[in-house]
Design a protein that fits this description.
Blueprint: H1 13-25, H2 31-49, E1 54-63, H3 69-79, E2 84-91, E3 96-105, H4 107-118, E4 123-132
Antiparallel strand pairs: 1-3, 1-4, 2-3
The chain binds nickel (II) ion.
Amino acid sequence: MSKVVRFGVSLDQELLEKFDRLAKERNYTCRSEAFRDLMRQELVQKQWQEGKEIAGAITLIYDHHKRELVNKLMDIQHDFGALIISSQHVHLDHRNCLEIIAFKGSPREAQKLGDSLKSVKGVKHGTLSMTTTGKDI
Ligand code: NI
């Protein structure tokens, strides 16, 4: 872990009050931790924009009774075999499935994978969680 430094920030009092309220609502125990998370969020976003190696997860909700849907989702995942680290399938109820796909690699490929899966007919909802490998952050 690198050295911890302190620094001063000048800003509008109203803005700080708003930030403190937000941090409290989100259960941060101190302002510094809330501020660190904001900074890291920006750094992660930059990693995605610059095409660095990133990590993340895709979630999909779909009805497995829809014809060909499961096969299409499988075909797409095989096309992105180098990107996908693991996947988990949960049978939510008689019809609905939740699939969680973890990935690590290129942001462009990850975005392409997410778009391809979410746009398959019959997928009810999909999310792409953009995070980091944890290196350089
Ligand atoms: Ni299922």
